[in-house]
Write a structure and sequence with these properties.
It contains twelve helices and 19 strands. The protein is α+β, with helices and mostly antiparallel strands. It folds into two domains: 23-83 and 258-424, Guanine Nucleotide Dissociation Inhibitor, domain 2; 97-196, Guanine Nucleotide Dissociation Inhibitor, domain 1 (Orthogonal Bundle). It is found in: Cytoplasm; Golgi apparatus, trans-Golgi network. Its main location: cytoplasm.
Amino acid sequence: MSVNGKMVLHIDRNNYYGGETASITPLEELYRRFHVIGPPEPMGRGREWNVDLVPKFLMANGQLVKILLYTEVTRYIDFKMVDGSYVYKSGRIHKVPCTEEEALVSDLMGMFEKRRFRKFLLFVVNFNEHDVKTHQDIDPKRMTMREVYRKFDLGPDVMSFTGHALALYRNDDYLDQPCLETINRVKLYYESLVKYNKSPYLYPLYGLGELTQGFARLSALYGGIYMLNKPIDEILMEKGKVVGVRSEGEIAHCKQIICDPSYVPDQVKKVGQVIRVICILSHPIRNTNECTSCQIIIPQTQVNRKSDIYVCMVSCSHCVASDGKYVAIISTTVETENPESEIQPALELLEPIDQKFVSISNQYIPKHEGTKNQIFISRSYDATTHFETTCDDIRGIFQRMTGATLDFKDMLTVNSEADQEDEH
């Protein structure tokens, strides 16, 4: 908004950047926040820790990277590649196969299914929505994904990791919907992967809090004002539209507001809950080839659930923990009255755990689109460990506010540390 010439005032009731997606530092502050005594022993210098409250990675070719490039926030942030992507099957984790070579050696599939999956991958890589010659007699707008799997003779296990670890769906509803979106999702995963070969994910050095600070710096460069530790006492309305906000006796006049659900509780509705568990470890996760960072997806069918369980791990390699320490964060949508029991399979993958911090957050969505009262409300962060659903929300808000779409055509590759590593 600032780059496009809008006068922006950003008011935050917190005394830190990022709200729900803040990176907590020092480590002692994390213990205080969760009312846990500790840490029991010195864990390096406290400022070496930057622990995210909401775990998210960036798809290397995904929407958030394109937004960062579009706004030029990348000038303020350094990124590093995430080492690996894994999927859970029958109590063990396996490397997600995304290339022809990996498909042929993966232990997720039998010999004949590997070859069928390879053919499916080749189809996805070569697929072009606007070129019928690449469709192989598949109507992408009418044929369901279940029918596509059947065409390539792929079994339930391959369907599971393709839908959940590659296409990043949270449940199996997509199976009976037109296959176009799923094909594009798998293709996005593949295109993100081939940028750096090891995994499709990037992560900012010093944690996700750097994203918020980067946007704040850019906004300030274009005349935006950022005020921390500033409460919102009242949103002022006239004739059904917002005209300003009152804070500590002062009024800031405005024509539009963007806010999260906590600022307008009467204009949102609860749609569920998410449990997140931050785990401090002294070791990498088993069976990940000693990765210092990775994502693990536990598909719903593997643990008799309606939604997936996500694990993302980072470490000192991303400047978020002391040397020899790791931060793994588990997240999933709550389905029962005992949320902690729901993430037990993920906890078992991480053992032994030095310390864990558990939070359960309500999920809210706005009751209206905001075009009438000009109050545009974001959705709560979901359980996924990527930013694609969040970016869909951002683009929707931008379009409703401005009537325009964020155009990402002809974008360049993010200028990240991962690029530099790739060059060497």
